[in-house]
Every structure is written in structure tokens, then in C-alpha cells.
Amino acid sequence: MSTFPHANYARHVLLPAYDDALTHLFEPMLAAHEAHALMLGDCGILSHENVEAILQAVAYIRSRGPDQLQYQSGIEDLFFRVEKEIISVAGADFGGNLQLARSRNDLGQALARMAFRTQIVNLAEAVITLRRTVLTLAGDHVETVMPGYTHTQPAQPTTFAHYLAGVLTFLESDQQRVFNAYANMNESPLGAAAFTGTSFAVDRAMVAEFLGFDAVIQSTHHSIGAGDHLTDAAFAVQSLCIGLGRVTRDLLFFATQEAGALHIDDSFIQVSSIMPQKRNPVVLEHLRARLGRAVGFAQTVVTNCHNIPYGDTQDIEDEIMPPLMAALSTAQDCLELYTSVFATLKLNVDHLARHAGEGFITATELADTLVRAVGLPFRTAHHIVATMVKSAVAEGVPSTALTLPMLQAAAAAVTGEELEFDEAQFHQALDPLNFINVRNGPGGVAPEATDALLDILTEQLIDDKEWLSNIRHRLVAAEQTRHLAVKTLLNSDSA
After folding, report:
1. In sequence order, which residues have a C-beta less than 8 Å from that of residue 395 and are 6 or more positions away?
2. How far is CA 164 from the centre of its chain?
3. How far is CA 159 from CA 174, 205, 310, 348, 355, in A?
4. Planar angle of CA 262, 267, 272, nearest 5 degrees
5. How is the chain split among helix, strand and coil, in percent rounded to 5?
């Protein structure tokens, strides 16, 4: 007869899964054993002596550390390896009761949620740190005028702060996605056992509180079959990385010699082996690739959760941990790297200001001014300005050399008559600073409007930092409460 496990099954499945569990689940498993034993004792399901023996065995295993629990062929996973150690230390009569009213199903789901929530908290903190850095940079460039682009072509004057305020807005939305992913992840499946619950009168809420879960999953079936907590985390990573990937594309363009908009710090620049003049902004290329890598890992999670049974299945157990952990950790790495890039980023302010008036990008305000000052319908004003620009381009006249007679000629061609419009009005309408200053509505590009938006974004950041602080405090408090309960029980006999 064949003996479990087959060598290839052990090499390709059991050993990698065991290593993942030893890396991510060792401490969560011991914590869950403590919480479960304490609850079984409090509910009168196990004797005081039995609980004490289990807790002492758990303490012994923790003191030895995970390095003493390397993979052994023939033991399927870390759970059985730890259970074997507990039985060895506590004795079969006591240690053998640890899995009473519990299954590997609800335990495994709980441990994964505990491991993932740690990574989600770290990701949330990395987003907050990036937002704080970008806010500082935006505050320095509220009046840094530059060309803005649509369809990759110069469109209208803007400021670098206005651009960054947009980045901060989507980062704040992604922050909420990460927080929501945490909230869904941090619900306890313990007490569901295999998936139908248990015939023992357990206290699911007590176990959840000891382990820092915010709530108990009411359905025992969903406790085991859930996948939405996994896809929520994956979707949060994808949204975050896709947004930052688009910013990366912009920064790579701004860093080109032709655009000349910004200066990547020398600590992120590599040189050519043959071309002495090159300053290669390779950090942005690495970011672009790694953001794509994180999106790919996250998509693997989504794919694994697709079209599988709604219940216990390896697709969303051992197999889901590597891609989701990789998605979360890669996204965090990108955030930390991006934080350093933004902290050292320099703008070529004078160069940007010069280009902000080129390429006819103030034409929108000229049309708007004709509506306000002359009373033309917007479409007519648009047609007149477009005719003037088309003629200027055909004659090789740059936007900085436009004249009122050119506008009047265009008006005559479109309407058959000249406009009641003077030189002062014409030149003011084409001034990039005027373009920016008159767009002072909520969220607009005017400095006062951008400052107001940055104030709102700062308040949101403060609120989010408090949320994260509260989350960390609750997790620490739960751990301290559990440790105190263990210590109290173990010391009760010696007192």
C-alpha cells in the first residue's frame, strides 16, 4: 500500500504550506489555543486542571519558538504538529481535549484572518504615511503653475498641488477600502467547527474578544465558506496599485528631458553603462512593475475564489495565503518606496511656469471670457477661439504671440462682425495665472480653493490616523487581556 505523503505531494504542497503556516500562523495558533482553552474552562466544558495543562503546554511551545517545529514528513500540517507537541507535554488525557468543540476548519479560517489582518493594518499605516508625505509636498506647490494634460496632450494650466490633491483624494478612498477590508477580515469564525457549529455550549464571543476580533460571524456556514473577506482585501490592493500605477506613468513623463518638469533624487537614479549623459529614473520603472505584480497577486486571489464550492475547500485555505500575502506585502513595499520618492522629489518651478502659457492651453478661459464680457453663446465663443487657434497653428504663430486682431478676424469669419473686446481683456484671458485664479470653486485649481481642499484632506488624514491607532490599541488590549487570563489561571494553584 502507498504511504502518505507521496514525495511530490510533500515537496510541492505540504512543505510549502507548512513553511507558510510556520511563518504566519505560529503565534496566532498559540493565541487561539489559549483563547479556546480559557473559554472551554469558563463554560465548564473542561476542568481547571485540563485547561491548566493545555496552557502550560502552549507556554512551553511558545518559549521554544517556531524553529523547533520544522516540517516532518508524515505530519500533514502545522496544526497536527503543534497538537502532537501539546499532547506530548500535557498528556493524552488533557492535551487530547484541546480540539473539543472545534475543527481545523474554523481554526484555520481564524488563523488566516488573524495573519491577514496584521498585514492589512501594516498596509493601512503605509497608506497614511504616503498621504502625509504627499500632503507636505502639495502644501509647498499650491502656486507652482504647470501645464495640465488630457488625452496626453497639453489642455489647461494647473498647479502641482492641484494634481497632488487629486492623488490624495483617491488615496483617501483607497484608505477606506483598506479599512473596510480589515473590518470584514476581523470577524471570528471560531465556534463554527466543521461548518454546522458544535453540540457543546461554547461562548463564541469570549473567544473572539480574547483574539481581538471585532465581531462573530453569525452564520457558521459562512464562517467556513466565506471568501468575500479575501476578495475585499484583494480589491483594495488592486484599486490602490492601479491608481498609483497611473501616477507612476505621469511621473515618468514629467521626468523626461522633453517635459523637464521634475527632478528625481540622485539616490534613485542609475546611469548608463555606455551613455555618460543618462539619468535613468529607474525607481519609477521598478514601481510600475511591482505595482503590476501586486495587482497580479491580487487577481490570483480573486480567481481562486471564483467558481468554487461555497464551503470548506483548499482553494481559499492553504492555496490562498501565498498570493494574498504577496499582494499585501508587495503593495506595502511600493507605498514605502513611493513615500521616499515623494519626500525627495524636486520640481523645476520656473520651467513649468514658462510652459504653462504655451500650447494655447488658456483658450478655454478666452472662450469663457467672451461669454461673460460680450454675451456670446458658449458654442459660438468656442468656435471663434478654435478658428483663431487653427489659423495661428497654420501660420506658425505660437500661443505667446496671439493678438487681438487675430481674434477679431476669427470673430468676423464666424459671426460676420467684430467683438466689443479690448486688449486688456484679451491678454488677461490668456494669462495662465488668471486662468488659475478665477477657478476658485470647491476643489478648483485656484490657490485658495486648493488650500481649502488640502485642509479637508488633512482632517481626513487625522481621522484615519486615529482609526488606525484605535485598531492597534484594541488588538494590543485583547492580547493583554488574554495573557492576563492565562497568567491568572496558571498562578491560581500556586497562590
Report:
1. none
2. 17
3. 23, 52, 50, 12, 12
4. 85
5. 70, 5, 25
DSSP 408-450: HHHHHHHHSS--S--HHHHHHHT-HHHHHHT--STT-SSHHHH
Domain 7-100 and domain 363-430, same fold? Reply is: no
d(CA 421, CA 403): 12
Q: In terms of Cα–Cα distance, which of 143, 164, 166, 104 is closest to 356?
A: 143
Of the candidates 358, 361, 446, the one whose C-alpha atom is nearest the C-alpha of residue 165 is: 446
Q: Which residues does 382 contact at the CB level (< 8 Å), separation at least 6?
A: 367
> DSSP 3-state assignment of 116?
helix
> Class of 363-430 per CATH?
mainly alpha
**DSSP E strand stretches across 324-382:** 346-347
Domain ranges of the chain: 7-100, 106-128+154-354, 363-430
What is the spatial distance between Cα 91 and Cα 53, in angstroms, rounded to a whole number?
8
Q: Which three cell numbers stand for residue 303?
A: 480567481
* Whole-number Å distance between alpha carbons of 385 and 363: 7
Element counts in the chain: helices (H) and strands (E): 20, 6
What residues are paired with 149 via a beta bridge?
154
Single-letter residue type at 314: Q
Nearest one of 284, 301, 175 to 239, comparing CA atoms: 175
- For 7-100, the fitting CATH number among 1.20.1250.20, 1.10.10.60, 1.10.275.10, 3.40.50.1820 is 1.10.275.10
The DSSP annotation for 55-90 comes to HHHHHHHHHH-GGGG---TT--SHHHHHHHHHHHHH
Binning pLDDT at 50, 70 and 90, where does residue 260 land? confident
Q: Which of 117, 164, 334, 177 is nearest to 241 (CA)?
A: 334
* Neighbour tally for 350: CB within 10 Å: 9
User: Alpha-carbon distance 464 to 132, whole Å?
Assistant: 11
At 382, list the grid cell.
Answer: 468656442
Q: Which three-class secondary structure state does DSSP give residue 95?
A: helix
pLDDT band at 105 (very low <50, low <70, confident <90, very high): very high
End-to-end CA distance of the chain: 55
Confidence of residue 494 (pLDDT cuts 50, 70, 90): low
Sole residue written with cell 491608481: 243
Give the total residue count for the chain.
Answer: 495
User: Which CATH architecture does the domain made up of 106-128+154-354 adopt?
Assistant: Up-down Bundle (1.20)
Percentage of the chain beyond pLDDT 70 is 99
Please check the confidence at residue 277 and state whether its pLDDT lies above 90.
no
Model confidence pTM above 0.85: yes
Cell of 492: 491560581
